[in-house]
Write a structure and sequence with these properties.
By secondary structure, this protein is an all-alpha fold. It has helices at residues 5-12, 18-39, 45-56, 60-73, 78-112, 129-135, 137-157, 167-180, 188-201, 206-218, 222-235, 240-254, 259-279, 284-298, 305-332; strands spanning 116-117, 120-121. The longest helix is centred in the first third of the chain and has 35 residues, at 78-112. The two termini are 35 Å apart.
Length: 333
């Protein structure tokens, strides 16, 4: 038969590039799904399968659209509800990153202009996720959708003979909602419990590793976040968010690490970002992360002037590649 989602994920775990895998797996699966839809137009399952592959390919907006089509036909299709929950969590994180960057840029501009509050110099404050969700209507809507989908899954699980989702996925869904739609730190310990339980039942759930890493990030436990993502990479060497997430965790860890550890952490982060870039060379974000790490390397006092210049030049190249891809994406849109 044609390559399917499971075959793709098995190949990705060996370290296959995203673009190569998309070209190999997506068209055949879409062709089969179209044939099934023609024969059984009211089934959600074809949409669920295509959407799952799109999620694995990091095409989250397309994955959500596919799940919405399927759930429009079968609202109680539990795998589709689960997939929509997972994708919505990723879209919420992406949106919160964008909101946080805009807030920090605004605060930075105000601080640079010499702004004061009551005569005291303006201090840049990084807003927490709970605060951002509470004050951003789109983020609040995504968080509400997560909670509604979990409640839907819980109702379906209470029905006699319910079997479309196993206990690992249900436990993972509970942890995902607590991790991503969290309004405060009190949600994080139970999120960790649900996610570790899910991984004990099914250690191949990449979304559980991501959410568990999110819990550690929110608690600013950077070594634990690195450890969780390393566990994820042990089962899936081709999943770009694991490499990106571990690189970011190491960069955050470096900000509070002892001086003799900073250079090592930044170098390891640069290696993680470079691997993410190799796996997904069309990602503007991947090139931007790599450029930022190289700028940080150039600031190291332990490097010679020649090494610093080389790092700066390589940072320029990476950031130029990022900008080129962002401009191309805007032109395409």
């Amino acid at each position: 038969g044609p390559p399917d989602t499971i075959s793709f994920i098995v190949e990705r775990r060996t370290g296959a590039r995203v673009g190569d895998s998309a070209r190999a797996f997506l068209p055949p699966l879409e062709e089969v799904a179209a044939q099934v839809r023609e024969q059984a137009p009211r089934l959600a399952e074809p949409h669920t399968c295509v959407g799952r592959l799109l999620r694995a390919l990091l095409r989250f907006d397309d994955a959500l659209a596919e799940q919405e089509l399927g759930l429009g036909k079968e609202p109680d299709h539990a795998p589709g509800v689960y997939e929509r929950l997972v994708v919505t969590a990723r879209l919420l994180v992406r949106h919160l990153h964008g909101v946080r960057r805009r807030v920090l840029r605004g605060q930075g501009a105000r601080a640079a202009a010499g702004g004061t509050v009551g005569g005291v110099a303006f201090e840049i404050v990084v807003p927490g996720s709970g605060e951002l969700i509470a004050n951003d209507p789109h983020a609040a809507g995504l968080a509400r959708r997560l909670e509604e989908d979990l409640a839907h899954l819980e109702r379906l699980a209470g029905r006699p003979g319910f079997a479309p989702l196993g206990p690992a996925h249900l436990s993972c869904a509970r942890g995902l909602v607590l991790a991503y739609a969290s309004r405060g730190l009190a949600d994080l310990p139970p999120a960790r419990t649900h996610l570790e339980h899910a991984l004990a039942l099914d250690p191949l759930l990449e979304e559980a590793y991501e959410a568990l890493a999110r819990v550690e990030e929110l608690e600013e436990r950077w070594p634990r976040q690195v450890e969780v993502l390393t566990r994820g990479l042990e089962i899936d060497r081709g999943y770009v968010p694991f490499w990106t997430g571990r690189g970011r965790a190491r960069m955050a860890w470096a900000r509070s690490a002892p001086g003799d550890e900073v250079e090592t952490l930044v170098d390891l982060a640069e290696m993680d970002f470079d691997r993410a870039r190799e796996l997904d060379p069309d990602s503007a974000e991947g090139w931007r992360n790599l450029g930022g790490a190289r700028v940080r390397q150039a600031q190291s006092r332990g490097r010679s002037p020649d090494q610093r210049r080389e790092r700066i030049e390589r940072a320029r190249e990476a950031l130029a590649e990022s900008l080129r891809r962002e401009v191309s994406a805007q032109a395409f849109l």
